[in-house]
């Protein structure tokens, strides 16, 4: 019983450490001529890491979409598979705003009336306000369900879309949208991530139009387009949301995720050389694709260490040590990498000296002062 209690406490503390901190706010809109309620969920690290910028996730139907997304984000960030994000939800259900917010002209299929004002509210009032008040990274994501999902597509119609990534769950299209979206995806020059889905429980007429868009979008061949479609068997219109969210986020952030066993076995270990270059390139891709500059994870250093040892490319430890000194200068990581090189090349005296120097630095990850002393003592005994 005590063990169960201890496990529950650990899980609670872990969840608390990664929980989004949600603020309910009101923004006065001149475009809509009314006040609108929004929720802003800040990452747990927001108050601690003063210079860090975070991707923005804007959720239409905020009342029920924010809790669903926050749950997936807390899980994904715990494992470092998904970056922490600032989540902004627009409440649209208190007075049935979602119907008027998404109003469109039945002939053109474009926003009309309040639907046009709502588009301006997001682009000209809400987003500038959020970007001024919070530390926002370049990557911006929008998501919605049925009518709000279709509405999110309108942002693709601009020459320079406001959002970079789209999570479109069972969209209910206005006239012509299933043809217009693939056309826009083929013409937009900047990188775009586009995810959409449908469920068994959706109306057949709606499903046919969604699949038509999928059929045409798959014909678009551009290196800047990251595209995925899911069809959920046995899911209802509403239950699919809980399937779609992790699928979309894990697809969007596949390049962000730590080195997995699959990536190690298929992409890194078979390389004849260039293991450190692979690591540098991986993080450069994250920065270039998503505008997020981040420290190289300790677990990724360990993966490259393993590849260097496996392939006896011991000289690459020098490059790895330089990288460690750049990102973790006060820690023992750089000295540890150099000591491994000396040890593997049987330069025992240098290895001992470097392990002892590492002892004077700050521990990091599974590297401890005791470990450095033990390493040095083992080498002394082997002489």
Automatic annotation (TrEMBL):
<feature type="signal peptide">
    <location>
        <begin position="1"/>
        <end position="19"/>
    </location>
</feature>
<dbReference type="GO" id="GO:0016787">
    <property type="term" value="F:hydrolase activity"/>
</dbReference>
<protein>
    <submittedName>
        <fullName>Alpha/beta hydrolase</fullName>
    </submittedName>
</protein>
<dbReference type="Pfam" id="PF00756">
    <property type="entry name" value="Esterase"/>
</dbReference>
<dbReference type="InterPro" id="IPR011990">
    <property type="entry name" value="TPR-like_helical_dom_sf"/>
</dbReference>
<keyword id="KW-0732">Signal</keyword>
<dbReference type="InterPro" id="IPR000801">
    <property type="entry name" value="Esterase-like"/>
</dbReference>
<dbReference type="InterPro" id="IPR029058">
    <property type="entry name" value="AB_hydrolase_fold"/>
</dbReference>
<dbReference type="InterPro" id="IPR050583">
    <property type="entry name" value="Mycobacterial_A85_antigen"/>
</dbReference>
<keyword id="KW-0378">Hydrolase</keyword>
């Amino acid at each position: 019983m005590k063990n169960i209690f201890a496990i529950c406490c650990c899980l609670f503390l872990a969840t608390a450490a990664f929980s989004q901190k949600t603020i309910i706010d009101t923004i006065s809109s001149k475009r809509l001529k009314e006040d609108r309620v929004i929720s802003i969920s800040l990452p747990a690290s927001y108050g601690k890491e003063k210079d860090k910028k975070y991707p923005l996730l804007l959720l239409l139907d905020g009342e029920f979409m924010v809790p669903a997304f926050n749950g997936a984000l807390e899980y994904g960030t715990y494992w470092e598979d998904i970056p922490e994000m600032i989540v902004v939800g627009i409440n649209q259900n208190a007075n049935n705003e979602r119907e008027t917010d998404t109003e469109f002209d039945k002939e053109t299929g474009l926003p009309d009336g309040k639907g046009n004002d709502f588009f301006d509210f997001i682009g000209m009032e809400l987003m500038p306000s959020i970007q001024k008040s919070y530390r926002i990274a370049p990557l911006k994501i929008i998501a919605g369900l049925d009518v709000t999902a279709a509405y999110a597509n309108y942002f693709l119609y601009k020459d320079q879309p406001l959002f970079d990534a789209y999570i479109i769950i069972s969209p209910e299209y206005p006239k012509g949208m299933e043809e217009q979206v693939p056309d826009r995806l083929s013409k937009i020059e900047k990188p775009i991530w586009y995810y959409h889905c449908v469920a068994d429980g959706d109306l057949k007429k709606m499903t046919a139009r969604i699949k038509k868009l999928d059929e045409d979008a798959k014909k678009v061949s551009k290196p800047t387009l990251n595209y995925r479609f899911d069809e959920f068997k046995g899911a209802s219109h509403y239950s699919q949301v809980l399937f779609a969210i992790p699928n979309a986020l894990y697809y969007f952030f596949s390049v962000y995720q730590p080195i997995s066993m699959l990536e190690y076995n298929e992409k890194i270990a078979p390389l004849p050389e260039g293991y450190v270059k692979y690591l540098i390139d991986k993080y450069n891709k994250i920065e270039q694709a998503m505008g997020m500059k981040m420290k190289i994870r300790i677990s990724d250093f360990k993966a490259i260490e393993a590849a260097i040892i496996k392939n006896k490319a011991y000289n690459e430890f020098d490059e790895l040590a330089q990288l460690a000194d750049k990102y973790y200068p006060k820690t023992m990581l750089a000295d540890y990498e150099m000591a491994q090189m000396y040890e593997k090349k049987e330069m025992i005296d240098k290895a001992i000296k470097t392990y002892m120097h590492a002892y004077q630095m700050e521990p990091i990850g599974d590297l401890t002062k005791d470990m450095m002393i033990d390493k040095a003592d083992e080498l002394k005994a082997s002489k």
